Amino acid sequence: MSDALSCPVTGATEPLPEYPLPRAAGCPLAPAPTAQALRAGKPITKVKIWNGSTPWLITRHADQRALLPDSRVSDDDLNPGFPYVNAHRAEIAPVTPRLITNTDAPEHTRLRRTVNGPFVVKRIEKMRAPIQKIVDDLIDEMLAGPNPTDLLKAFALPVPSLVIAELLGVPYDDHDFFQRSSSLVLDGSAAPEDARRASGELVAYLDNLIRQKTATPGKDVLSEMAGRVQAGEMTHAEAVSMGVAMLIAGHETTATMISLGTLALLQHPDQLALLRETDDPKVIANAVDEVLRYLTIVQTGVRRVAKDDIEIGDVVIRKGDGMIFDLHAANWDPEVFPEAERLDLTRPARIHQAFGYGPHQCLGQNLARLELQVVYGTLYRRIPTLRLDAAIEDLEFDHTGTTYGVHGMPVAW
Ligand code: HEM
To answer: Is 14 within a domain?
Structure first.
């Protein structure tokens, strides 16, 4: 495969864009400008990644919706041509247990069925009152503590850590360990041996915890999975790996949506005022979806490989070709979200793809939405004078992790 795009008329070539694409300096919350330009001009085009391979980059909302649920589009990272995020992922793929995150139907359907139950709206909604208490208590503590403070440490990280610990039945006292290990696993710039060690430690930790839950079950998701293992519906290894996946996926993402979401809202005081002045759950729910759309924090692109030839528009994606779905570019697609660059909490936002699309759409989306609804509906009303205590240019953003984020967010009130 050529490393260049060539002009069909003159034959002139230009090198393929390298993915991930950089954001513009001084514009930390917008998608990479190249991704936006490609969406307008070459919405399905080749890019080059870290190992020199050249998967397709798909940037339009409509094309993502057509391809992500297509059964010829595979999430199985053992298929030749899979566009791994980094060398560590490539190295561990052959020894990683088969999970919902790396299987296709019918195996994916079976595995997902074993874990869907606790995450359906009806069951998640029962967590509203406990989450409200967690959020209120943390705000009380923040108000009683130093001013200014780091919103990330004082509030954004503890909220999802406490919630996921309660839901899974993981002792919160271990949060330093599981926060540190999961961020190492997700950090694209971490040394492979560190990421490998962190993921091994998480596996050992969950293995031990699930054995304990088998002996003395509680009313939590890990106990429920231990019960499914005993009933022969899943293996112990599958339960351990699922526990690790939920623990990893369950807190850094939501923490980032709290810190970066607050940053985005502070940059748009008129929108923040709308949120502060309402207690209408529908308005708050839509606001959460709009901030999810606007920020689309999963920044490494959703990765897939073609299991067969796929014709789409004027392109043929060949069997074995890698595919990267840039969710942020799709969520700023003006064909679906007019003036997509405007944060507008009143626009219909729910059809965004910040949680992906198709069979692998985020398992924890109802939980994440609920946590963010409680946070956005409470934090700015309880601390109406909340402000950033630094220049936005001085914040340090995380460009290498699976999720975009900020290393610390000083706030005052
Ligand atoms: C705002 C917070 C969150 C965002 C933006 C987010 C985003 C995503 C995205 C984009 C995917 C799709 C990946 C793909 O198609 O390959 C995904 C999948 C997943 N997410 Fe989330 N997520 C969030 C919160 C959570 C939470 C709280 C959990 C807790 C359980 C979770 C668990 C998962 C799991 C297990 C999958 C894999 C699903 C599958 O492959 O079938 N996520 N998430």
So the answer is: no
The Cα 313–Cα 304 span in angstroms is 19
The alpha carbon of residue 53 and the mean position of all alpha carbons in its chain are separated, in whole angstroms, by 24
Residue 16, in any domain of the structure: no
Task: Print the domain residue range for 248.
Answer: 33-412
Report the alpha-carbon distance of residue 96 to residue 202 in Å, rounded.
13
Q: Does residue 116 fall inside a structural domain?
A: yes
Residues β-bridged to residue 149:
411
Q: Which of 314, 324, 280 is nearest to 55 (CA)?
A: 324
- Using an 8 Å Cβ cutoff, are 287 and 294 in contact? no
pTM for the model: 0.94
CATH of the domain at 314: 1.10.630.10
* pLDDT tens digits along 139-165: 999 999 999 999 999 999 999 989 998
* Angstrom distance (rounded) from CA 170 to CA 165: 5
User: Residue 395 CB: number of other CB atoms within 10 A?
Assistant: 17
Question: What is the β-pairing status of strands 315-317 and 302-306?
Answer: unpaired
Tokens of 302: 């959703």
Under 8 Å between Cβ of 403 and 298 = yes
Q: Which residues pair with 57 in a beta bridge?
A: 45, 324
Q: Which residues pair with 325 in a beta bridge?
A: 58, 302
Point out the least confidently predicted range of 56-65, 197-206, 268-277, 369-378: 197-206
Q: Which atom of ligand 1 is nearest to the CA of 253?
A: 2
- Which among 258, 298, 362, 373 is the best mutation to test ligand 1's pocket, defined by most ligand atoms within 8 Å of the CB? 362
- Rounded CA gap, 114 and 106, in Å? 13
pLDDT in tens, 354-378: 999 999 999 999 999 999 999 999 9
Distance (Å) of CA 269 to CA 281, 307, 323, 386: 20, 47, 38, 11
Total number of residues shown for the chain: 413
Structure tokens at 337: 């979200």
Q: Is 354 in the pocket of ligand 1 (CB under 6 A)?
A: yes
Total structural domains within the chain: 1
Instruction: Report if residue 221 sits inside a domain.
Output: yes
CA of residue 385 to ligand 1 center, whole Å: 33
Measured in angstroms, how far is the CA atom of residue 379 from the centroid of ligand 1?
24
